[in-house]
């Protein structure tokens, strides 16, 4: 389909019959390919009436971006978060971007991404009191938490409570919760032997342990999600 996309972008007028003849396939095959390209977010324009042509919007595909799988997953999940927040700005083309990303994955990888998306929860906006104390966590902490969340791996963390006291813990990052702009990790805390919710910006250090955990259902964490400020 990439060759077809290039030709449609270059030719000012090209009919389905011309394309079928050029590629030695049936018009039905070309029509099916055009439909699939539209599903992937390509802007295919068509002239009505007999002899009408089809073309690809010349603005499509400007600056091809090469993403590896992990980068594409992060982008797709970020799009899903933005869509769930129902912001009216800058969302017009996110559906098209998402369809193109999804189309680039194998069925197995699509299922994996959907499982990751189901583990990201969107809550109400954080209170002004909570927002006032927000700060950016260290990059190395974010990277360790991100990988442990994806791999379902236990983390050794150092956590600072609201009163400034710190503690060393082992946690299982089962879910991530966004109460904009604050991210929380919804985890099973080995220290307390119960589900707890931690503010990500209060994680002072984090290191993967290499130990995997089995995912628990959201229902198991409902008590820890019931607190308004979600501070521990």
TrEMBL record:
The record ties this protein, via PROSITE patterns, to: WYL
Q: Which SUPFAM superfamilies match?
A: Winged helix' DNA-binding domain
Report the residue ranges that make up the WYL domain in this protein: 141-207
The record, for Gene3D superfamilies, names: Winged helix-like DNA-binding domain superfamily/Winged helix DNA-binding domain
Its domain of life? Answer: Bacteria
Q: Which InterPro entries match?
A: CBASS_pafABC_assoc_protein, HTH_11, WH-like_DNA-bd_sf, WH_DNA-bd_sf, WYL_dom
* Domain Helix-turn-helix type stretches: 7-51
Q: Pfam families, alphabetically?
A: HTH_11, WYL
Cited PANTHER family = PROTEIN PAFC, PTHR34580
Q: What protein am I looking at?
A: HTH domain protein
Give the species: Boseongicola aestuarii
Q: What is the lineage of its organism?
A: Bacteria, Pseudomonadati, Pseudomonadota, Alphaproteobacteria, Rhodobacterales
């Amino acid at each position: 389909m990439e060759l077809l996309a290039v030709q449609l972008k270059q030719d000012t007028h090209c009919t389905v019959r011309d394309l079928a003849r050029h590629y030695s396939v049936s018009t039905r095959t070309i029509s099916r390919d055009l439909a699939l390209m539209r599903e992937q977010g390509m802007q295919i324009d068509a002239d009505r009436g007999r002899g009408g042509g089809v073309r690809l919007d010349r603005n499509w595909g400007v600056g091809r971006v090469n993403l590896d799988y992990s980068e594409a997953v992060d982008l797709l999940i970020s799009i899903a978060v933005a869509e769930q927040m129902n912001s009216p700005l800058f969302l017009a083309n996110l559906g098209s971007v998402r369809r193109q990303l999804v189309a680039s994955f194998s069925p197995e990888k699509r299922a994996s991404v959907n499982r990751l998306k189901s583990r990201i929860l969107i809550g109400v906006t954080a209170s002004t009191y909570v927002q006032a104390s927000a700060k950016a966590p260290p990059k190395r902490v974010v990277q360790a938490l991100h990988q442990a969340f994806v791999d379902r791996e236990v983390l050794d963390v150092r956590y600072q409570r609201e009163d400034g006291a710190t503690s060393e813990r082992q946690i299982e990052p089962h879910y991530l919760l966004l109460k904009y702009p604050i991210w929380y990790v919804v985890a099973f805390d080995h220290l307390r032997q119960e589900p707890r919710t931690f503010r990500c910006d209060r994680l002072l250090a984090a290191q993967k342990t290499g130990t995997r955990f089995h995912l628990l259902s959201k229902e198991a964490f409902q008590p820890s999600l019931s607190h308004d400020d979600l501070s521990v």
